[in-house]
């Protein structure tokens, strides 16, 4: 059994490690770099799944140029989207990044009509003036696009997710823990 002094020391070390880890997570958003000179005015480290959202809001035309980044293995997928109909997954218009068997990264756009969506590539319910692209590097996917914010509102219900692939096919994500907490009311004006 540990002596009281050792227990306190271990707790201090563990607390310091947790604080440093959370500080690193918070800094990841602000210190993120992007290829080809891309940069964004604002970012948020999202509360779950290790994800972050980076964006520049253009008030003149009500669009947000954005990058969504989330860790994943090359055998997984990540997704980010806006739900103009309300909070949660059903009704969300999403961008899903994954790799095929050859390692080529692609982005599927789809509207999630239910909690068991068909994931057919389709047109979103808001304008996407810049077609989405994605990359996989450093153990994370990054999705790039520009969206016209629905209703010209700077506050939107957003969702994000991560899950596995099998033979290049998108499999369902977990239905517990962080995977059910990946929703946020995002303010694109103030962050």
Structure description:
With 191 residues, the chain is mainly beta. It folds into two domains: 1-31; 39-187, Sandwich (Immunoglobulin-like), CATH 2.60.40. Helix content is 15%, strand content 40%. The protein contains one helix and eleven strands; from the N terminus they run αβββββββββββ. The chain has one helix at 4-31; strands spanning 42-45, 52-58, 63-71, 76-82, 93-99, 105-111, 130-137, 140-148, 155-166, 169-170, 183-187. Strands 4, 5, 6, 9, 10 and 11 form a six-stranded antiparallel sheet that branches. It has a five-stranded antiparallel sheet with strand order 1-2-3-8-7. A hairpin with a 5-residue loop joins strand 5 (93-99) and strand 6 (105-111). The radius of gyration is 18 Å and the shape is globular. The N and C termini lie far apart (48 Å). Residues 5-27 have low confidence and may be disordered.
Layout of secondary structure:
Blueprint: H1 4-31, E1 42-45, E2 52-58, E3 63-71, E4 76-82, E5 93-99, E6 105-111, E7 130-137, E8 140-148, E9 155-166, E10 169-170, E11 183-187
Antiparallel strand pairs: 1-2, 2-3, 3-8, 4-5, 4-9, 5-6, 7-8, 9-10, 9-11
CATH topology of the largest domain: Immunoglobulin-like
Task: Work out the helix count.
Answer: 1
Could you give me the name of the CATH homologous superfamily of the largest domain? Cellobiose dehydrogenase, cytochrome domain
Q: Which structural class should the secondary elements be placed in?
A: mainly beta
Tell me the major beta sheet: 6 strands, antiparallel
Pattern of helices and strands: HEEEEEEEEEEE
Indicate the mean pLDDT: 82
Give me the Rg, rounded.
18 Å
Number of strands: 11
The tally of domains stands at: 2
Shape designation: globular
CATH architecture field of the largest domain: Sandwich
User: Quick one: CATH class of the largest domain?
Assistant: Mainly Beta
* Low-pLDDT runs: 5-27
Which percent range describes the beta-strand content? 35-45%
């Amino acid at each position: 059994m540990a002596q009281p002094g050792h227990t306190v020391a271990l707790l201090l070390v563990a607390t310091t490690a947790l604080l440093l880890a959370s500080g690193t997570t918070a800094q990841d958003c602000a210190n993120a770099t992007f290829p080809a000179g891309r940069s964004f005015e604002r970012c948020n480290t999202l509360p779950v799944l290790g994800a972050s959202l980076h964006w520049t809001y253009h008030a003149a035309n009500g669009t947000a140029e954005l990058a969504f980044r989330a860790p994943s293995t090359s055998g997984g997928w990540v997704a980010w989207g806006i739900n103009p109909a309300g909070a949660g997954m059903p009704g969300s218009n999403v961008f899903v990044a994954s790799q095929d068997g050859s390692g080529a990264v692609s982005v599927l756009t789809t509207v999630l009509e239910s909690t068991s969506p068909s994931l057919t590539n389709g047109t979103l319910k808001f304008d996407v003036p810049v077609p989405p692209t994605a990359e996989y590097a450093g153990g994370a996917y990054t999705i790039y696009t520009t969206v016209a914010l629905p209703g010209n509102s700077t506050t939107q219900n957003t969702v994000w997710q991560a899950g596995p692939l099998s033979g290049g096919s998108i499999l369902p994500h977990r239905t517990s823990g962080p995977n059910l907490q990946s929703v946020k009311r995002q303010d694109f004006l103030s962050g």
